[in-house]
Known about the structure:
It is a single chain. The protein is α/β, with parallel strands linked by helices and 227 residues long. The protein folds into 2 domains: 5-16 and 88-226, 3-Layer(aba) Sandwich (Rossmann fold), CATH 3.40.50.1000; 21-83, DNA polymerase, domain 1. Helix content is 44%, strand content 13%. The strands form 2 sheets. Strands 3-2-1-6-7-8 form a 6-stranded parallel sheet, sandwiched between helices. A hairpin with a 2-residue loop joins strand 4 (138-139) and strand 5 (142-143). Helix 1 packs across helix 2 (41-55) and helix 2 packs across helix 3. The longest helix is centred in the N-terminal third of the chain and has 17 residues, at 21-37. It is globular, with a radius of gyration of 17 Å.
Amino acid sequence: xxxxxxxxxxxxxxxxxxxxxxxxxxxxxxxxxxxxxxxxxxxxxxxxxxxxxxxxxxxxxxxxxxxxxxxxxxxxxxxxxxxxxxxxxxxxxxxxxxxxxxxxxxxxxxxxxxxxxxxxxxxxxxxxxxxxxxxxxxxxxxxxxxxxxxxxxxxxxxxxxxxxxxxxxxxxxxxxxxxxxxxxxxxxxxxxxxxxxxxxxxxxxxxxxxxxxxxxxxxxxxxxxxx
Length: 227
């Protein structure tokens, strides 16, 4: 293998989004749906969960079925005035990120402005060659965020990368399954999933002990990548 090319997810991979940020995002999305679709909070919450499960991102269902503006939705729901005070990670994880050899890209389904705020709060914005956020995932006029395998193929072709040289590090298994389908290697980051499962129960009914066949490694710390 040549020098590795790393693609890192953001939320629950580089920082503990489950602690508070995800709750604030969910509330903001539910409020947005209730206001713009003129439904009550219970129906808004149902639609948010339904579209996330069906399409991998609530936004895709809103665009497809309700004509919602993607840019407006992302701006409104990710504004989060107190975001920076709720971004937490481990210092040795962030230090390992700096030490890790190879090219590094951030690959997140979050909007660019939000991703940059989180990276700056963590102090690792300069670690990445580029940030590939939701706005950069449009293909042929439609958004194709993770876990769409077409995104991975398009991205690798655009960057002129061999799939075998690339490693996806993140917490979401469905995204890793798609990455493996196109020939990338995969690492399942579980630190923040384990922390969340202690207070919220099993995440999605899926245990954290096993390792699916499409996952090369599972980690509890980014520092383990150095080994």
